[in-house]
Amino acid sequence: MLFGVIGLLLVLDQPLEVVLFEVASAQGNVGLSAGVTGPTMPDAAKAVLMANMWIGRLEIIPVIALLRVLLKGFGPDPDRDDDD
Fold first, then answer.
1. Nearest to 28 by CA among 49, 7, 11, 47
2. Whole-number pLDDT of residue 42
3. I need a surface site. Which of 4, 41, 53, 68 has the fewest CB within 10 A?
């Protein structure tokens, strides 16, 4: 949620409380808006909100697991010694 808030604050000219509301609404997938979202919103802001909606839909643990697999792969950790 923090990355979404920071991303929207950088892209949109809106106060913090409005940005917090939009990000919380997107991550909770409730569909409420303070009037910020719409077809004229910048593409970067749409991408930030889409990512928050996706994370909110899947929950955070599966997203973290997916990112770990993408960054480190499926195999065992080569630094770990399991010969005990």
1. 49
2. 93
3. 68
18-72 per-position pLDDT tens digit? 999 999 999 888 888 888 888 999 999 999 999 999 888 888 888 888 888 898 8
Alpha carbon 75 to its chain's center:
26
Instruction: Show the tokens assigned to 66.
Output: 């997916």
**Could you tell me the sign of the dihedral formed by the alpha carbons of 6, 17, 27, 45, in that order?**
negative
Nearest Cα neighbor of 53 from 12, 22, 13 is 22
Residue 40 structure tokens: 């004229």
Q: Cα–Cα distance between 24 and 17 in angstroms, integer?
A: 10
Cβ(5)–Cβ(48) below 8 Å: no
CA distance 54 to 69: 18
Fill in the DSSP letter of residue 36.
-
Are 56 and 29 in contact, with CB atoms under 8 Å apart? yes
